[in-house]
Design a protein that fits this description.
- Among the domains are: 1-32 and 71-106 and 109-150, Thrombin, subunit H, CATH 2.40.10.480; 36-67 and 279-380, Lipocalin.
- It contains no helices and 36 strands.
- It has strands at 6-8, 14-18, 31-32, 53-60, 71-73, 76-80, 85-90, 96-102, 104-105, 111-113, 116-123, 128-135, 140-148, 156-158, 161-165, 170-174, 180-185, 195-196, 200-204, 209-214, 220-225, 235-236, 240-244, 249-254, 260-265, 275-276, 280-284, 289-294, 300-305, 315-316, 320-324, 329-334, 340-345, 355-356, 361-365, 369-375.
Length: 380
């Protein structure tokens, strides 16, 4: 008998809520449809912006957040929280426009697969989770899928399929009709956000392996032992994968054969999904250190010490970096030299990786608070 039980169920399991519904869905509209902007987990925006921010609005959800992020489409911001809710807001006013409530926790960022909103609920007091495919045009669930185990890793959308990875190494490819195209049991714990290019899904395991699966059929194309263990998410570019381990070692690895090109010791455990631009990799650790490393050599360019645990991803622009931490601050850092340019303090810990959407910055902090910032000026 398979360890994973999956059943398509016809009933809904969410309680009182206000439907999230769109009159139409245009693929050409601006959107952030998953954690990290895309399946490669690229947090880089190739624009120059101002380091001085104005609060445009401050709103809230009913629950706090895990170390996730937000997604957005056109004029709508989508936020998942630990009270089992997906809440939609107007990006311009912060007005709540809809809310879906489930009995459990939503640990990851929801994803947009065209006009479908897809997310996983870790059901309360149960040993299973529920994948929900919600039709934004109908304002109702299209499909739900029961899966044994818990899911705390971020989802991937690629080629109109959704890929999900359980905490115990079950990997699924799901169609937009709620069908399981394939499943693979890696028989190992995974507490790392996966990444994908056009052909392969990349995963890092708690026992220190890098694994590459074919997106088409789930066939394993690479499995190589790298370190003592990974809890960092993976970021990838054309040829390389970047990630850090539980000992604080950061790696650049060949996507083709798993060879280690270079490694850098940050001295403290890394759980962050790193960010990069054309020349640099930016990685933070649980000591609160944010490093800028040369992509080619791994040489340190600078280190910014926030003194607050870093477990969220940086938002990177041409001139500055936005980095949140558990010291209750948003640090705005000069990308050239690592100097602090500006800092915003909060009453609670910063929980989400900041996003940039339609010339605004969005951040979530403890107690379910959401902040939207505009820039005092746009440099170019």
């Amino acid at each position: 008998m398979k360890n994973f039980l999956y059943i398509i169920i016809a009933f809904t399991f969410f309680s009182c809520s206000k439907a999230i519904v769109f009159q139409k869905y245009d693929r050409e509209k601006d959107a952030i449809n998953m954690f990290g902007n895309n399946s490669e987990r690229n947090f880089y925006k190739k624009i120059t912006i101002d380091e001085f921010l104005n609060v445009e609005w401050n709103s809230g959800t009913h629950g706090s957040y895990s170390n996730t992020s937000f997604i957005a489409y056109d004029t709508t911001l989508f936020i998942s929280d630990l009270s089992g809710r997906i809440t939609s807001f107007s990006i311009f006013s912060g007005e709540e426009t809809g809310e879906l409530k489930y009995n459990g926790e939503i640990e990851q960022t929801a994803v947009l697969n065209n006009s479908q909103l897809v997310f996983i609920v870790n059901n309360e007091k149960e040993k299973f989770s529920t994948l929900v495919i919600y039709d934004l045009l109908k304002g109702d669930e299209s499909f739900t899928l029961i899966l044994k185990g818990k899911f705390n890793n971020e989802l991937v959308v690629k080629n109109e399929f959704v890929f999900l990875v359980s905490d115990f190494g079950k990997v699924f490819k799901i169609s937009n009709y709620g069908q399981i195209e394939w499943e693979v049991d890696l028989d190992t714990e995974i507490h790392s956000n996966p990444a994908a290019d056009d052909k392969f899904l990349y995963l890092a395991t708690l026992d220190g392996k890098l694994i590459k699966l074919n997106l088409k059929d789930g066939a394993k194309k690479l499995e190589t032992k790298i370190s003592d263990g990974f809890q960092s998410g993976i970021s990838i570019d054309d040829k390389f994968a970047y990630l850090g381990d539980i000992d604080g070692i950061f790696f650049k690895i060949s996507k083709n054969n798993g060879d280690i090109l270079w490694e850098f010791d940050t001295m403290t455990k890394i759980v962050q999904t790193p960010g990069y631009d054309e020349e640099n990799i930016f990685v933070g650790n649980l000591n609160g250190d944010l490093f800028a490393l040369d992509k080619q050599t791994g040489q340190e360019k600078w280190c910014y010490q926030s003194r607050g645990l870093i477990n969220t991803s940086p938002l990177i622009f041409e001139n500055i970096i936005f980095q949140t931490n558990l010291l209750k601050t948003l640090d705005i850092i000069d990308k050239k030299n690592g100097e602090l340019l500006n800092q915003i303090e909060y009453d609670s810990r910063c929980r989400t990786s900041p996003i940039y959407f339609r010339n605004r910055i969005f951040i979530g902090v403890d107690k379910g608070e959401v902040f939207c910032y505009s820039f005092e000026k746009k440099l170019d």
